[in-house]
Amino acid sequence: MEDRWMWDDSLRLGPPYRSIGFIVCLILGAWSAQALEMSVGKIPSLEAVNGSTVMLPCTYASCIGIENLYFNWQFNQSGTMKKVCESTIPSEEVEPDVTIFEDRVTFIGKNHHNNVSILLWNITFEDAGFYTCFGVNPKEKGRNHSAKFHLMVVEELRVVDNTLTIIIASAVGGAIGLLIGFMLLKNLTLFVLSKLEEKNKECLVSSSGIDNTENGLSGSKADSKPTPKKK
Ligand SMILES: *[C@@H]1O[C@H](CO)[C@@H](O)[C@H](O)[C@H]1NC(C)=O
Ligand SMILES: *[C@@H]1O[C@H](CO)[C@@H](O)[C@H](O)[C@H]1NC(C)=O
Ligand SMILES: *[C@@H]1O[C@H](CO)[C@@H](O)[C@H](O)[C@H]1NC(C)=O
Ligand SMILES: *[C@@H]1O[C@H](CO)[C@@H](O)[C@H](O)[C@H]1NC(C)=O
């Protein structure tokens, strides 16, 4: 009974709910004119030492899904855009065949979770600059979108003075510790108070209990409770 009801309910609510989501998605897409989105992450830059290997991160997102999504990575080499790699992704979670135009580049995202990141091996100072992750989704009337990633190549990483960070971190940690301690103390106090109150109530009940036993109230209550309901 229960199962059938749930099944019916999902049938009734499922499709309209999904199509509402779809319509909202279309409206949002049309309104922002950018349904497809390429993202290089929250921090779109990286400072790396020459000779190291870096990942240029990129993921795509599309609320109506993709079909033959074209994407490429381009490098802005003193004004001219040089293609690093390109491919067409038939559908989500299908590993695409990627054409690579540079020796030291590997496609590592493999379209796993919309991931089209690449690896740049043994970077040189000439590799520094802006990399663009570009995509076109034919399913969205060929809408395109791109995101820029800034790679900085340095001889050695600057030694960041961490003292202030550590001071702040320990201050924040200390404050949180104090707060937790205070909350625990407060809870403990409340607990003790509630226990005391309970005891007080018990005292009140037992003191007035003499009256209850006389008219048989407390006795009947205690008896009715443990009776299990069986059919
Ligand atoms: C990085 O560049 C410096 C200066 O050109 C050079 O001395 C060093 O060997 C380079 N490091 C690597 C790992 O290539
Ligand atoms: C990167 O450099 C190392 C050591 O020089 C070399 O063995 C390796 O093949 C290089 N990788 C690429 C992709 O060029
Ligand atoms: C993309 O794939 C690479 C390689 O598997 C991984 O290191 C990276 O974290 C992935 N990025 C995202 C955003 O999932
Ligand atoms: C990307 O789309 C814009 C319009 O949104 C268009 O002007 C531009 O030419 C497109 N770029 C490419 C490379 O297709």
From TrEMBL:
It comes from the Eukaryota. GO terms for biological process: cardiac muscle cell action potential involved in contraction; regulation of ventricular cardiac muscle cell membrane repolarization. It is found in: Membrane. InterPro entries: Ig-like_dom (IPR007110), Ig-like_dom_sf (IPR036179), Ig-like_fold (IPR013783), Ig_sub (IPR003599), Ig_V-set (IPR013106), Myelin_P0-rel (IPR000920). Residues 15-150 form the Ig-like domain. SUPFAM superfamilies: Immunoglobulin. This is Sodium channel subunit beta-4-like. It comes from Gouania willdenowi (Blunt-snouted clingfish). The gene is scn4bb.
